[in-house]
Here is the input.
Amino acid sequence: MDKKLELVDLRKQFNAKVVPVKNVSLSVGSGEFLTLLGPSGCGKSTILRLIAGLEQPTSGQVLINGKDVSRLSPGDRNIAMVFQSYALYPHMTVRENIASGLKLRKTPSGEIQTRIQDVTDFLGLHDLMDRKPGQLSGGQRQRVAVARTLVRRPDVFLLDEPLSNLDALLREHVRAELKQLFGTQNTPVVYVTHDQTEAMTLSTRVAVLNNGYLQQLDAPERIYMEPANRFVAGFIGSPQMNFLQVPCESRRAIVGNHPIPLPRGANMPTEITLGIRPEHVHLAQSDHEPALDGQVFLIENLGMHNLVSVRIQGQGEPITVRAIVGIEHRLAIDSTVRLAFPPESIHWFDVSTGDRIQTASDSTSVVSPSVTPTSVTS
Amino acid sequence: MTTTVPESQPRSAHQHGVRRIVLPVAVVLTVLFCLAPILWQLLTSFKTDAAIAEIPNVYFPRPDQLTLDQYQKLFERRPFFNYIFNSFLVSLASTVLALGIGAPAAYALARLKLQGERIMLAAVLIVTLFPPILLFLGLLDIVRYFNLGNNYLSLIIPYTAINLPLTILVMRSFFQQLPKDLEDAARVDGYSTPRMLLDIVLPMTIPALATTGILTFISAWNEFIFALTFITREDLKTVPVAGAQLGGASPFEIPFGPIAAATVLGTIPLVLLVLFFQRRIVQGLTSGAVKG
Here is the structure.
């Protein structure tokens, strides 16, 4: 059976000023892994709690398998959730923790036994079954919390920053494990995180949120390649994208002293925001290549690369551009470099709305329909 | 760093030496200071009348100065088991009531966003500021009006009322630090609210219930004014009142021995209670529920 979760025009309002979720619509199908990504306070956790039924929406609907569950209690929705703190019952053994949800649903005990057996085989929890959560390490508690959701065979999995309490090494390991694990479940997964690496690595689709608005809902690579607006462009990618607000003259943006042709989608603005990721800026190979002259004023070593901050003099204020440069270019502070912006890697944004302006290299529709009415500045 | 280590080592060793002497001495002195009255009562309760009256004081009685007579006299003259039973019944009932009413109230104050929550808390706090001694005359009128004099209820109800604010305040702060995720997880698992409170919240609450319960029990056990005023029938008296009213064989005799024995017997149940629940109090039952 195909499982499906849909949010229709979901809104949560605590009072006139605090509106953590503003009319969000999206759907997650079987086997899809959707990540809600955004800075803290963007409403991602509230959306998850609305899906779970731990909060009641002000308006809008939550549909599971086509059925409106907005008014049902969390226990009647057949969802399972992993909490950031794991939330294992401290006075119960691991086995009781895993079985509690099934027992409450009056699952026959034979069925409970086999399901627990399956899950413990799957997660390798055999030796821990009779321990209390207090006797487990952080990673083990996390596995038990995951086991408690898997055993339920729910219609939707909800995960609320399940990795944020693990140390960095373990987090990378568990992240890979989670990806494999939920990949086999053929059930919609909604995952909340503020960590873009987790979002990019785990998801089949990412929903970027800010201020309660859905900014973009797309596959991870599209989010990276064709950010729908300036917020998404700045939030995804590390180090952050360079944004230059530059004047335009006769369909050309003037960067420093160097004109760059505007994309076709732009209709004669006087100013435009140019975005380019540091990893796409490179040192000009030859004198013929159009490039900008600038002075290095900061070099940060990232191991494989240097992150170089360059000050470019032009008309008016000097502009700062950061570029990822291989360590083989032995750059020094105050040395002069020539930076080239490959035209296919340039992103253009409207100065006032922050929305993306389409370029020739974009795929036909950048902004998914549900996103169009919302933008950063609205 | 490396240069400072050799310098600081002898100093810390010296400090360590001073600490090794001063700390145990301080501990012994503090314990002696706190326990001296109790030890004196304990000693008195085991001495013969002659040894009690002897001057200078007998701190280390000879074997022939030791006796169990004082306890025997106590039980011969008065139904002391009866007093202990009365105290126990009244204290236990008011403790159970205080916890039974106070804990749910505290949970509601901690978890629900109630209108006027601050006013309620302020009201609860103000009650604790009232000295009970100012209340007992008014309460006596109430007790008379409801015809509750010489009834256990005349003690159980005021003791519960007086201990409720403390119970509510302590339990509320406990519930506030109880991770809310656990309750959310229980609801997602399918627990109904009553079952969640019973199966998930209550087991984690036991240490806090034990702590506040003991405080309530002790305060009810030791209460004197109400017990003296509202109860006049001999067979309903509680230990503190009965102990204070112990008379000698003649009006001119103060029965130090039986009074000491009564004090010891009145304290033992409390000591046992605290010792029994101590492990539960110290044990942090929530460990392992969430990270940390």
User: Anything to note?
Assistant: The interface with chain B takes residues 49, 52-54, 73-76, 79-81, 83-91, 100-101, 104-105, 132-136, 138, 141, 148, 165 of chain A (CB under 8 Å). Residues 365-378 of chain A have pLDDT under 50 and may be disordered. Chain A has eight helices and 21 strands.
